[in-house]
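Exam review. A common question shows you a sequence with its structure tokens and asks you to describe the fold in words. Practice with the pair below. Do the first one on your own.
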Amino acid sequence: MSNIFNFHGGSVLAIKGKNCVAVAMDRRLGAQYKTVSTTFQRVFKMTDKCVAGFIGLGGDVQTIGADLKYKLNLYTLKENRQIQPKTLSWLISNMLYGRRFGPYFIEPIVAGLDENNEPYISTSDSIGCMTDGDNFFCIGTASELMLGACESFVKPDLEPEELFEVASQCMLSALDRDAFSGWGAVVYIITPAGITARTLKARMD
């Protein structure tokens, strides 16, 4: 596999619902076909109603995750409020574009609820060219395998439990068919009440 973004594997999925958002990630960190870790964290809690997920090189994922938490602490102290998902998307886009001559080999997904509890999701490439407005985004080695299931099952205004089921089935069906993602999944459901995480079992091979 010649694509550096796929070397460590991994996949992330985000879906909008009715005043809720689902984000699903797999748990595998590999070196091509060799599994290095089965508990890798590629989705990070940014606020009480917002998360950011990344695929790409494991070291870059951990680096930008830690850097973002530092920047968000400064933002909270300066602004005396939590950052909104769209603002976080622009922050990540700006960070990635600032390193365009020596980029992080990652792709991000931002998902959360704004101040009116409206769902927001976005993604970008490795130098910060952002896309938002769709009902779902999927990135990573299993992204093409998730597309068909998402287009079939994702509908507007899904309730949190329906959204969890859709995100789970879309992710698990892709993990069954992708050698570079797997070892279970974690699904985060973001609602006005907060963020809940559920762990899914998948094929452990």
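Now try the second one, then compare your answer with the model answer below.
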Amino acid sequence: MPGRPGLLLLLAFSVLAPPGSAASARLSSCRRFGGATVFCSGRNVSGVPEELPPEATRLLFVGASLSSLPCRAFAPRNNGSSGGGGLRQLAFLDCPLRTLPGCALAGLPRLRELDVALAQLAGLPRGALLGLGRLSKLAVRHSRLEALEEGLFDGTPALQALQLQGNRLTTLPPRLFQPLPGLQALSLAQNRLAELPAETFQPLLRLRELRLSDNLLRRLPPRLFRPLAALRELFLDGNRLAELPRGLFAGLGRLRRLHLQHNALGRLEPPGLLAGLPSLAFLLLQDNQLARLPAGLFRGTPRLVELSLARNRLRDLPAGLFGNLSELSVLSLAHNRLGRVAAGTFRGLAGLGRLQLRHNALAVLPRAAFANLSSLEALDLAHNRLESLPEGLFDANEALVSLALEGNPWRCDCHLAPLAAWLSSLDHPLGARVLCRAPAPLEGRTLLAAREEQLLCPCQPGSARCRVDAPPPTEETGALDRDA
């Protein structure tokens, strides 16, 4: 379950506190650790400590049996205790909280971080966060939230990070984030959102990271992200998006990372869909249903460093598709249906270091397929339909240190002899494993285990490396052999 490793770490910390200390006695089942931190762990903890050390700034409940908090649970006590007035961080981890009344968090004027994880909250009332004017980080994760009321964030104008992943949210009020102009990171991942109002993110002018992964989104309003001029990272993976509207990414000139994998995208149109993304460095499109790509798709993304188109339905690639991507370092086209690669397909990829073409339908490669890839270090051609490779195919790839060739129906004859000679001449192994499928005498053996005189072809006019197959014995020649 998400969050468990962190919980175990916190529990380990709590064990380190001296059990016989005076602080432990005053705090019952809670223990001090590191002076300013108080841990309250175990199912025997059912309420907030009556007395907290005045120097305490962190209070963490881990695996406690807290199901609710009373009104003003952290306010100063009648006995003179300062309550939680000095707390800056408060966490409820793996506690069965069912409700958070509007007055429960009163008395925490200095609180900066509030973290609730693995709770049983169905919702947060409008006044739940009142009085938390200095709160900069709020996390309510994996806590069964089904709804959020408009006005919930009216009292938290300083909020910079909001994590709401792993809940059951189906809709959002259109103006929910209106009071949060300083928000920089927002996660709504792993919810049940099927649609978003067009004005949802309108006030978030400083937002740098937006996570909408693993929801039920089928379509997005064209202007949904238009106000997010400061956005650096956008996660839309794991949804049900079949198409993207014109202008969806307009205005996102600072965006560096875009995740669109694990959707139902069948096309990337209209033309210019990515034109407004000059800073984009990482684009993930794997696990969609793309059958073709527009020729100018990447014309407006010259700074791409990593591009994944794996696990789609691509049969061919338009000429010049990658011509503008001189900074691209990683390109994955694995698990598609590519039947051919033209000589100029990878032209322009001067900085490409890793190229993945495994699990396609490639039967033939032109000699110049990788001619301009002088920086290529890793090439994966495994599990295609290759029987041979043209001589000199890798002549320009002097930086190559890894070459995957397994899973092809290699025919180990004169056409593969140059490959065998090249592999044998290398000072460093490339990991290339070529297992012969034919001819019959070499079936199941590796190419490098075959002797040079075995890598022959039937004689053809002009052939230098060939064998003359003996004609089948006739009745006459057979009788002569017997007589001899």
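Model answer, second protein: Helices lie at 4-15, 22-26, 417-425, 475-483. Residues 314-458 form a domain with the Leucine-rich repeat, LRR (right-handed beta-alpha superhelix) fold (CATH 3.80.10.10). Full marks require stating both points clearly.
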